[in-house]
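Let's practice the habit of predicting before peeking. Look at the sequence and jot down your guess about where helices and strands might fall. Then scroll down.
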Amino acid sequence: MQSKQRRTMLRLTGCWAMCTAAFIVSAQQPDSKSAAPKPALTVTVAQPQSQQLSQRLSANGSVAAWQEASVGAEIGGLRLTQVRVNVGDQVKAGQVLAVFANDSVLAEINQVKAALNEARAVASEAQANADRARALQPSGVISAQQYNKDVTAEATAKARVESAQANLAVSELRLQQTQVRAPDSGVISSRTASVGSVVGLGSELFRLIRGNRLEWRADLVSSELFKIKPGQKVRITVASGAEVSGQVRMLAPTVDAQNRTGMVYVDLPASAQGLLKPGMFVRGEFEFGSTKALLVPQQSLVVRDGFQKVYVVGPDQRVKLFKVSVGRRQGDMIEITSGLPLDANVVVRGAGFLTVGDLVKVVP
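Done guessing? Here is the structure:
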C-alpha cells in the first residue's frame, strides 16, 4: 500500500516538472509579431537644394554728413539784427543766412571816402606843381632841390590816394561781411546764432551739410578690407525695414592700431534723406555677386558636442549623425559648405529629439 502511494506521488511530481519546463520554454520564445522593433519618432526629411546664392559681407557703421561746413562770422564786434534760417532749412550757395548791424561800417565808409577825396585834391595840386617844375627845370629857373621836392610831393600824394582807395575797399568788404552767406548749397544742421547777440570774429553761427549729401561709414576688420573695392554696391537696412542702395566711394588709407579696423566710406543716394539721418547706427551688406550653394532648412541643424550637425535617414530607416560646416543664410535656409552628401535625406522636423541609430518613420 505504501509503495503504491509512493509511485503515485512520483508520477505527479514528474508531470509538474514537465509542465513547468514547458511553460518556461514557451515564455522564453518571443512572439513573431512582437519581435519587430517600433520606430522611435515620426520625422520629416528634405534633400539638400542647389541654388545660386549671393555673396555678402555684413558690417555695422554710422551715418554721417559727407562734408559739414562751419559758417562763421567774418567780422567781429557787431550785433546780429536778423537770423533768416533755422535747423533743417534747405539753402543755396550765396543765400543770406544772417545780417549784422552795419551802422558803424557805413560811418566808416563815409569817413574813408572823405579821406580819399582829400587825398585826391592834394594829389591834383602836387601833380600841377610837379608839371610846372618839369617845364622850368631845363631853363634853370628853379633849383634842383626844388625840382626834386615837387616831384617827390607828387609821388607821395599819389600813394596817399592809393592808400585811401585801399581803405575804402576794406570798408566796403566789411560792409559785405555784415551779411553772412552760405558757402554752398545744402541743409542747415545746427545753429548757434541768435538775434541781438554780439559775436567775435570767427565765431561759428551755423553748420551746413554740403550738397545735402550723406555717407555711411562702415567699420571692417583688416582681413575684410581687402575684399572691398571702390564702386562696389552696398545694401543698407534702415530700422524701419526699408533698404537703401549705396556705393563705396573710398577706403581709409590707414587701420586703427587699437581695434585693427578700417573705415569704408559709402555714398548714399539723395532718396535716403528721408530715411537716414546723420548719427544713426545702421547695418549694411557688401555684395560680391552670386555663387552656387547647397542649402538645407535651418530647422535641421542640431548642436552636439559644440558642433553643428544634421541627422540623415539611411536605407534601413535608421538615423546617422553628420558633422557639417555652415555658411550663408537665405530666409529659413542655410548653406552647407562641407560634410553632407548631395543625396542625403536630412531630418527636418523632430531632429532635436533623436539619437544616433534611432529607427524613425518618415512622413511627407
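How did you do? Confidence is low (pLDDT under 50) at residues 15-30.
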